[in-house]
Amino acid sequence: MLNFILRRTLIIIPMIILISMISFLIITLPPGSYIDSYLANLQQMGGEVEQSRADTIKERYGLNDPIYLQYWKWVKGFPRGDFGMAFSEERPVINIIQERIGYTILISSLTLLFTWVLSIPIGIYSAVKQYSFGDYAFTFFGFLGVSIPNFLLAIIIMFVGLRFFGINLSGLMPVQYMGEPWGLSKILAVLQRIWVPVVVVGTAGMAGLIRIMRAEMLDQLRQPYIQMARSKGVDEIKVIIKYAARIAVNPLISTIGWLLPQIISGGTIAGIVLGLPTLGPKLYDALKIQDMYLAGTIIFFNIVLILIGTLLSDILLALVDPRIRYD
Amino acid sequence: MKNKDKLLEVKNLRTYFDTRRGLAKAVDGVSFDVYKGETLGIVGESGCGKSITSLSILNLVPQPKGKIYGGEILLHRDNDEVIDIAKLKRTGKKMKDIRRKDTAMIFQDPMSSLSPVYTVGSQIMEGIMLSHDVNKSEARERAIEMLRKVGISPAEQRINDYPYQLSGGMNQRAMIAVALSSNPSLLIADEPTTALDVTVEAQILELMEDLQQEYKMSIMFISHDLDVIGEISDRVVVMYTGKVVEVAEVEDLFYNPSHPYTQGLLQSIPKIGRKKELKPISGSVPQIYNLPDACHFAPRCPHKMDICTKKEPPVFDVGEGHQSKCWLYEEGGKRNEG
Amino acid sequence: MKNNSSESKITKDEDIVMSNPFKAKSHWQLMWEEFKNHKLAMGGIIVLILLYVSALFAGFLTPYDPNERFSKFPNIAPMQINIFDDNGLTAPYVHPIVGKRNMETLAMEYTVDQSQQIPVNFLYKSDDTYNFLGLFKTNLKLFGSDETQIFLFGTDGLGRDIFTRTIHGARLSLTVGLVGIAVSLVLGLFFGGISGYLGGMVDNFIQRVIEFTLAIPKIPLWMGLGAALPQDWSVIQVYFAITVILSLTGWVSMARVLRGQILSLKEEDFVKAARAAGAKSGRIISKHLIPNCMSYILVNLTLAIPGMIIGETALSFLGLGLKAPAVSWGVLLQEAQNVRAVAQYPWYFIPGVFVIVAVLAFNFVGDGLRDAADPYH
User: Which site in A61, A115, A215, B46 is 20 to 30 Å from C350, CA atoms measured?
Assistant: First the structure.
């Protein structure tokens, strides 16, 4: 088992290098960048201090160097936690990441949990009551969930909140709580809003998950060991949960591989529309003004989060399915 | 055989499947008895309804398409209670009680008939705890004992193994241990050796015979393989397209088959030392949605008469404990109604 | 009596012929029969046909030019075409917009006057000339009126007709998926095909690329690439750039499906049998592999289109995709970015309803095809 974990973890390292390259490529694509205008600004202000600062930045990021050198100058800071400067905010990128990655992870994990907690029982129900009214109804709502783009659902929910309940659901907490220490009332205020991104992003992945769970359940319910368990006189509910569902959920764990990118992806746009303190809105701002290191680092961290999530799911899968461990 | 007490009476059982192509009469008017302590073989080609018959007895017909449409399955329990299983609710309490205490079943494919994610031991213990009022450690003791009985050793270690860590033959032994852990009066074995090598098959058959002696149970042994049936059965039921065509004691059946289908089956088995040419039955098994009227076997039968395509033959007595569903015996045999 | 029985015999024989299960039906016939039974999918097909036909005839169906501003009439609520009045059924009419001077602010205010009825003219000659299917110029519109403007879905803040813009927007939004999927298909067929066919190192490498691409979250990637598009590009350039961006991630699932299919088909008995019987590679590919993959490819195509539609809408919504003066559903939805505006003028959201309906329809059709393509479901 340890060997398995070690092997899986090692594969990640070349992947991370590849991701850093892709992130860099994306941010250097646009002609001209924020640095140019930033430097122009600095120079305009004149003065020796500004001039030397501009030179330092040029030197630090190798703006006059060929692209591979620029890349190297960017990534060599990674091990020290130096991801470059967010020029628009005049502070290191890592500070912004630190502020926001926690909320991103929190909302993503809650979304994953939400999707699973709902899809698994629905998938089981739909398989056991195949072709029933409930089966069709859940399938329909699942489709509705995938078919409403995340940002539209976010707008719909905010619209309903504002128009019919008179509450503002944007942001993660009302303005007065920002910067305040965490307390019960602040937690309650966050709980009142955090469900919005969770539902918005979660519903998009639910139909796929329900479909897989239902198909796996139907498959397992046809297996001989189910009849064997019934023939022993095991209660039907136990046959369904302990025998069929126990195996049917295994493939679901491996769906983290595609569910997580979807959640990060949906979370980005939901974050922008809802104005959440997550990485998404910062990426949006950074891209619009071509604040390249900030944008590149956020894209980099988004993909790294997915890789780590997938790694964890692989390990989890090996834990729950004894057949994989002995491969 | 000496004991003529009935354990199970199946009377005019009809189990149908409501499919998109129509009503599939998988089991259509099947009647037979199982006596206490005997091994009853049920033989027929695939699709003849033998497996559905056995699943009907446990009320485990695949849902939602399959259903017992009529007939009786009378089980005589130890306390002289007689229960009609066909009338019980599939997931009802009584049905569960019967499955826990009176009946047990082993299936064809040993590798997929045990859950891959639980140890063999825990699956045996579950059966023991469902049928007996014992705690976990007692159940474990008994499970080890069961494993020893079915010849899995070292039992103390193997009890912690997962099914995929055992060979096919070992898994079949483990499944027998699960089945017998409840000490059932009726064991239904649905093609238990079909997926196994011939040498392993012989071991498993021997094991089943030994355990039958020890547990004094009845066995319904279902197979398409006449050799295996001949080896293990006391009496044999021959099925064709959802109907019983012949019932006889095993020797009677092999030396004196009465139904043309049984005769055809016996002639199509290769035997070492027999120079006679194999004679396959002509034609093929009709589709279940498209069965001939009257006698189902008539289109393939070498002795076909006019009446065979007009009227379904009743069951005729053709000898001591020997019945045949064929018009050939209308004059020779006595007519047996019911 | 005798006659009767012979007649009934004939009908019986006919029945047997009609329902003869051994009569070979082509795979596509079987698929179509399955598909027809899928009510949601059939509904989806009808909705899609309606949407695409509307997009094609947008110039005729809508009363205005999509970028025409009625600066006097901003934020007018949707107007209804009525066919009942107090006297019962009548010719279709609308309540006109009338201007009234607000005596306090002294500004003109335009509202719908419920007391007046203005008949709607059909096949109306309007001021707006458009190019009918690229064939000829005309100013014939499905409906219009000399006496009032007709805003079926209301107007936006600049007084543009949302109905006209929505129907015109379908042109870009509904075709971006088709063009994108065509690019994806070519890429997917190529990489999936060689991956499944050649196997070995090539397969291994392509597989890693596919896995990696799947792990990349689409929206951040699209946003990054969308932001990289030069500001001075024309609508057409941006349009094709967007389809390429969407295809960068879209080809992956296509390639995966195709590779899986080819790998499993290569091992199928009927392919082995064909090979054993001496069939040439070309024949095996054309007679066995391609026909057997086609239905899966079709299913995959259908299910991939909605993702592309959502992608374009999302990018344009964020201002990183198509931009005005281009008219797409995503561009229209930029108006709906501000929730307070939506709360005040809910009709801003109507293009969003079209997005949802179109995507839902594609998903239903795709699901119906998936069920129909898989005979063992």
Answer: A115
| B90 and B196 both lie in a single domain | yes
Listed residue (C224, C252, C217) closest to A261, CA to CA: C217
Type and span of the H or E element at A5 = helix A2-28
Answer whether residue A298 is part of any domain.
yes
How many helices and strands, by DSSP H and E, does chain A display? Answer: 16, 2
Task: Return the DSSP state at A240.
Answer: I
Contact A268 C219 (CB under 8 A): yes
Owning domain of residue B227: 6-240
Sequence-distant (≥ 6) Cβ neighbours of residue B1 within 8 angstroms: B35, B37, B38, B234, B235, B249
Q: CATH number of the domain that B231 lies in?
A: 3.40.50.300
Examine the domain organization and report whether B158 and B307 are in the same domain: no
What three-state secondary structure class fits B294?
coil
Does B262 lie in the same domain as B247? yes
How distant, in Å, are the alpha carbons of B26, C56, C71, C325, C350 from that of C68? 71, 20, 9, 11, 19
Cα torsion angle, A145, A146, A150, A156, sign: negative
Tally the residues of chain C: 377
Which helix (H) or strand (E) element contains residue C17?
helix C2-18
pLDDT tens across the length of chain C (377 residues): 344 444 433 333 333 334 444 445 677 777 888 888 888 899 999 999 999 999 999 888 988 888 888 888 888 888 888 888 777 888 888 888 877 777 777 777 777 777 888 888 888 888 778 888 778 888 888 888 877 888 889 888 888 999 999 999 999 999 988 888 898 988 888 888 888 777 788 888 888 888 888 888 999 999 989 888 888 888 889 999 999 999 988 888 888 888 888 887 777 788 788 888 887 777 776 677 767 778 888 888 888 899 899 999 999 999 998 988 899 999 999 988 888 888 889 999 999 999 999 999 999 999 888 888 775 54
Q: Does B166 touch chain A if contact means CB atoms closer than 8 Å?
A: no
H helix or E strand, kind and range, residue B99: helix B93-101
Our count of domains for chain B comes to 2
Structural domain count of chain C: 1
Would an 8 Å CB–CB cutoff place B21 in contact with chain C?
yes
Q: Does B175 touch chain A (CB under 8 A)?
A: yes
Question: By the 8 A CB rule, do B192 and B205 touch?
Answer: no
How large is the greatest C-alpha to C-alpha distance in chain A, in angstroms?
A: 89
Give the global pTM: 0.83
Same domain for B21 and B72 = yes
Positive or negative torsion for Cα B132, B134, B138, B139: positive
Nearest-CB residue to B109 (from A224, A246, A247): A224
Angle between helices A2-28 and C218-227 (to 10 degrees): 20
Q: Which two tokens stand for residue A219?
A: 């498959």
Here the CATH number for the domain that contains residue C167 is 1.10.3720.10
Q: Give me B78's structure tokens.
A: 């130890």
Chain A residues lying within 8 Å of B97, measured CB to CB: 233
Q: Is residue A188 part of a domain?
A: yes
Decide if C200 touches B, using CB distance below 8 A.
no
- Give the number of A-B residue pairs with CB atoms closer than 8 Å: 74
Could you tell me the two tokens for C57? 């005839």
Phi-psi region of A198 (alpha: psi -120 to 50; beta: other; left: phi over 0): alpha
Domain that holds residue A60: 34-72
Report how far apart, in Å, the C-alpha atoms of B103 and of each of A231, B127, B235, C327 are. Answer: 8, 12, 19, 72
What are φ and ψ of residue B105, in 5° steps? -140, 140
**B223 and B288, same structural domain?**
no
Do A48 and A141 sit in the same domain of this protein? Answer: no
User: Which residues in A lie closer than 8 A to residue C356 (C-beta atoms)?
Assistant: 147-149, 152
Task: List C-alpha distances in Å: C115 to B82, B182, B268, C94, C153.
Answer: 83, 85, 94, 10, 21
